[in-house]
Amino acid sequence: MSKANPHNTPQHPWYILGAGAIGSLWATYGFQSGADIRLILRDQKAVNDYLQHGGIHLSIEGKALICTAPAECPSSLATPIKYLLITTKAQQTLDALNSIKPHISDHAVLLLLQNGLGIVEHIRQAFPLATILQGSTTEGCYRQSAYEFVHAGHGHTYIGNASQDHLQDDTRLTEIANTLSFPPLAISISDNIDEILWRKLAVNCAINPMTVIYNCRNGELLTNPKSRNHMTEVVNEIINVSTAMNRDHWLTGLHELVIDVATSTAQNRSSMLQDVQAGRRTEIDAITGYLCQLAKKYGVDVPINQQILSEINRISALDKC
Ligand SMILES: NC(=O)c1ccc[n+]([C@@H]2O[C@H](COP(=O)([O-])OP(=O)(O)OC[C@H]3O[C@@H](n4cnc5c(N)ncnc54)[C@H](OP(=O)(O)O)[C@@H]3O)[C@@H](O)[C@H]2O)c1
């Protein structure tokens, strides 16, 4: 893995699709660094609200940063999009991309920065000539109100070629990482982003849905013997699937990693718990759902994860009634 530094000025603007917590983080630091950032919001009403609010307000350690980057919506987009950072939730990605499909250049660079897997295969079909990159971040950001966000924790971000997609050379990937490394956000390139994403998926499977089932903060999963044991069973099944896929070496120390993440984020309410409590669709299909799909494909039984998938879908449906 090599470290990228922010020395480059992009020749084309970076469009950001999904101006939520992560999208607004990149938009604000990008705007503050003088980069050409454009936001793509859902519709004209969202653009009007953004303008009325005076842009995005991001709090970081008591300081307030403002982003007034130009905002557009599918009906107002005019120029072809060559660089697109996608920061929607996994389940929102295909609808969001479809809404701007005519404006995306054939050879665009599409960088997915989100949790969950399985979306990239659909994107590749819809945009066969595009360069598709994937990223994983440990930055922490949350929304306080419509356009107010808090950068709650510094982390690191890796990007790499989505499997089967190969850029001509690593120099181009490094350039792309450079153009998005807006201080204090740091992006490194990875020659095995699939491994990073798989480990993240495994941790997400073991923590996020469990916080919904036990209706608790991340750390409480460890203090309740029932949920702790349940997490161990989830992790064992993930390791079985990974073994069938010859990926078990990617999950070395997974039990310990899950405990470390639950401990270091003990006070957090997971995004899945927040989504369920707010009556929003969760990322479960791209997390546990994706694991269960692969388990089926490789002939591995994952009854615990199947049960968790059904349970989250049942709880989500109840919340919508
Ligand atoms: N937040 C974090 O700290 C964090 C850390 C690591 C990874 N992640 C991952 O990063 C991804 C993004 O998370 P997030 O917390 O930033 O989520 P978020 O705050 O919900 O942001 C998603 C944004 O996408 C927008 N969107 C959805 N459909 C759209 C469409 N059709 N057109 C335009 N905009 C659309 C949403 O708008 P509406 O509000 O109108 O739906 C929302 O503003 C997730 O996969 C998450 O798991 C997040």
Automatic annotation (TrEMBL):
Its EC number is 1.1.1.169. Pathway: Cofactor biosynthesis; (R)-pantothenate biosynthesis; (R)-pantoate from 3-methyl-2-oxobutanoate: step 2/2. GO terms for cellular component: cytoplasm. It is an enzyme of class 1 (oxidoreductase). Keywords: Membrane, NADP, Oxidoreductase, Pantothenate biosynthesis, Transmembrane, Transmembrane helix. InterPro entries: 6-PGluconate_DH-like_C_sf, 6PGD_dom2, ApbA, Ketopantoate_reductase, KPA_reductase, KPR_N, NAD(P)-bd_dom_sf. Catalyzes the NADPH-dependent reduction of ketopantoate into pantoic acid. Belongs to the ketopantoate reductase family. This is 2-dehydropantoate 2-reductase. It comes from Zhongshania aliphaticivorans. The lineage of its organism: Bacteria, Pseudomonadati, Pseudomonadota, Gammaproteobacteria, Cellvibrionales.
